[in-house]
Description:
Blueprint: H1 2-24, H2 37-52, H3 55-86, H4 90-119, H5 123-140, E1 183-185, E2 188-190, E3 200-202, E4 207-211, H6 213-216, E5 218-222, H7 232-259, H8 266-282, H9 284-294, E6 297-303, E7 306-313, H10 315-351, E8 354-355, E9 361-362, H11 366-389, H12 398-402
Antiparallel strand pairs: 1-2, 1-5, 3-4, 4-5, 6-7, 8-9
Helix pairs in contact: 3-4, 3-7, 3-8, 3-9, 3-10, 4-7, 5-7, 5-10
Amino acid sequence: MRYAAATSGILMAKTFAKNTRKHSQEPVAEHVEEKSFLDLLKEMLPLIKNVLTNPVLVLLVLASITDSFIVSAFAAFLPKMVESQFGLSSSSAAFITGGVVVPGAAGGILLSGILVRWRKLNGLQCAKYQAFIGIACIVAQFGLLIHCPSVKLNGISVEKNMTCTPSSNDCTTCPSSSIYSPICVGDTTYESPCHAGCTTHDSVNDVFGNCCGEQLNLTGNPGTCDTGCKYLIPFIIMIFVIMFFTFLNNIFFLTSNLRCVKDSERVMAISIQSVAFRVFGSFPGPIILGAFLDQACILWKYECGKRGACQEYDNKKVMTMAIALAMIAKTIGTVLYFIAWMVWEKKEAKTTTIAYSDGVKRRPDPSQKKTNVISEDTEQREEDDFTTSNKIPDGASVDEVSV
C-alpha cells in the first residue's frame, strides 16, 4: 500500500513539474516576413474564384440583390408617393413613411434573429425560409393596389373650365407660368390663383376672391382639392407588412451566406455580397423606379421651356408602375431563392451519402456515429488509466511494487 501511495505522489510531482516548466517558458518571437501586394493578390485570386464559382452563394446574392433593389427604390420615392396619393405635405409624408418603415424593418430583423437562434437553423434551412418568405412578400405587395383618385386639375385631368379664364396674360407666360401654386376653387384644382382668375386675396384668412370672374365670384383656398380618400390607414398597414417581410430575410440571408462557404472564404463572400448590393441593387433601384414614375406624371414644371420636376401624378398609374416593378423584382428573387435551396439540398445529399459494401448509397446513421466516437474515447481513457496506475516509480523494483 505504501508503494501505491508513493507511486501516486511521484506521478503528481512529475506532472506538476512538467506543467510548471511548460508555462514558465517564454514564447519565442517568430520573425514574420511582410508580404508584398502581389503576394496578397496571388492569395486572394483563388479565394475570389472559389466564391464566384460557388453556385449556392451566387444564387443567394443574386436573389438578395432584388431585395436591395426594392428597398432602395422605395426609400427614395415612397414619401413622394404618399404625398401624391393622400394630398399630404412633404414633412407629414416623410414623417409617416419613416414611422412605418423603420419599425417594420426592425421587427423583421429581430424576428429573423430570434427564429435562427430558437430553432437552431443551419444554412440550408435558412435558404428554405427565404424562399417561402419571398412568397409571403409577393402576396403582401398586392396591397400597393390601394390608391386614391387623382387631383381634378383643370384642363389636364379634367376638362378645362372655359368660364374660368386667367386674370391676366402674365400667368401663362414665362416666368410666371413656371410657378406652381395650386388653388382649390369648388372641386377643381387650378395651377395658381392667376389661372383661376382670382383678383382679390384676404391675407388674414388666406382666401382668394372673385375667382372665375365677378359673375361667379367664387372663393379659392390654397392647395389642391381634397379627393376624399380614406385609404391612408390601410396603405400604412400594407407598407408595414411589406417592409416586415422584406427585412425578415435579413438574418436568414446572412446565416446561409456564411455557411455555404468555407471559413477561410467568409470574409471574401461578405465583401463580394456588399459590392453586389450597392452596384446592382441600391444604385439602379431609384433610377429605374424614377423612370417608371415619370410615365405617370400629368403636370411637369417648365422653366422658360426647360422641363423640371413633376408637379402632379396620376395616382392610379403611380401605384400600377410601383407594383409592377416590385412584383417583377420580387418574383425573380423568390425563384432564385428556390433554386438556391434545391441546389444546396442536392449538394448536401451528395456530400452526406456514403457507399456501403452492398453497393447501396445511404446517409450515415448519426446515432451510430456518435456511439462509435463515445466508445473510442472510453477505450482510450481506460487504456490511459491502466498505464498510469501500473507505471513503476523511479527507484522501485517490480517485486516491491507488486507487494
